[in-house]
Specification:
single chain; alpha/beta; Rossmann fold
Length: 258
């Protein structure tokens, strides 16, 4: 990607005003001028997406729901895509979904659909086997409602897979990473200028709602900011059959137990 095109994206990230009365309007206003360059720039910013999708073992015939899937970048990173019975990309941002539709048409993916909808209240016609959030929870104001909706859309035994930025609590659980004051206090303020809300509570809530199968905490370099790395996590969880029967998170999950 050329530096002038990077500057265009950086302008929208750091300086361009974000207008709109609703969340959907603000998203479309923010991304309209950078949608075509979104994937090239974010490839260097949003780390771990390929790792998350490639470590998942998804059997043929599965139904996949990609929440906040934007341009459909994740579709090309999933080695098991062709074996899925159906795939739905859900997002509120029309400019990004236009790029997703172009990608689907170019690839000839007849089993992939697009829905312009809100992740906090989107209801599937049939329960799905996999729900993914790839750097989308931090863009959803009511992210906890999006996680709850994912839980309800999953079949018993279905999986949720999340990769996103985060910061730790001041006193995280034993075994979890503790970020320094500078990262915990200033990084959320910086990201919030783009309406990206870094949370201390993503991982605890995911662990309360789902049975944890995998959790990794990592650091990612940021373009043009060589001295600072952004914390992010990979989470894979399972909707337990006992949870589904009770409608409650499992008492054996780390967050529920603590």
């Amino acid at each position: 990607m050329s530096f002038p095109r990077d500057l265009k994206v950086l302008w929208h990230l750091a300086l361009a005003p974000v207008r709109g009365d609703t969340h959907a309007e603000r998203l479309s206003n923010f991304y309209a001028g950078q949608a075509e360059d979104y994937d090239d720039f974010r490839r260097r910013l949003l780390h771990g997406r390929e790792d998350l999708l490639r470590l998942l073992e998804i059997p043929p015939g599965s139904r996949w729901l990609d929440m906040g899937g934007g341009t459909g970048f994740n579709l090309e990173q999933a080695p098991w895509l062709a074996g899925c019975r159906s795939v739905t990309v859900v997002d509120l941002c029309q400019p990004l979904l236009e790029q997703c539709r172009l990608r689907i048409t170019r690839r000839g993916w007849n089993h992939v659909g697009v829905e312009e909808a809100d992740a906090t209240n989107y209801v599937t016609a049939e329960a799905v086997d996999l729900v993914t959030f790839s750097y989308s929870l931090t863009m959803i104001p009511d992210w906890f409602a999006a996680i709850d909706r994912a839980w309800h859309n999953l079949r018993p035994g279905g999986r949720i897979a999340v990769v996103d930025f985060h910061v730790s609590r001041k006193y995280p659980e034993v075994g979890r990473t503790r970020h320094g004051w500078f990262t915990r206090s200033l990084l959320p303020v910086w990201f919030a200028t783009d309406n990206v809300c870094l949370s201390r509570d993503h991982i605890p809530y995911l662990q309360q709602r789902f049975e944890t199968e995998r959790l990794e905490e990592r650091l990612a370099p940021m373009p043009y900011v060589p001295f600072w790395k952004a914390p992010y996590y990979l989470f894979v969880g399972r909707k337990g059959t006992d949870q589904a029967a009770a409608g409650l998170p499992s008492a054996s999950s780390p967050a529920a137990a603590g």
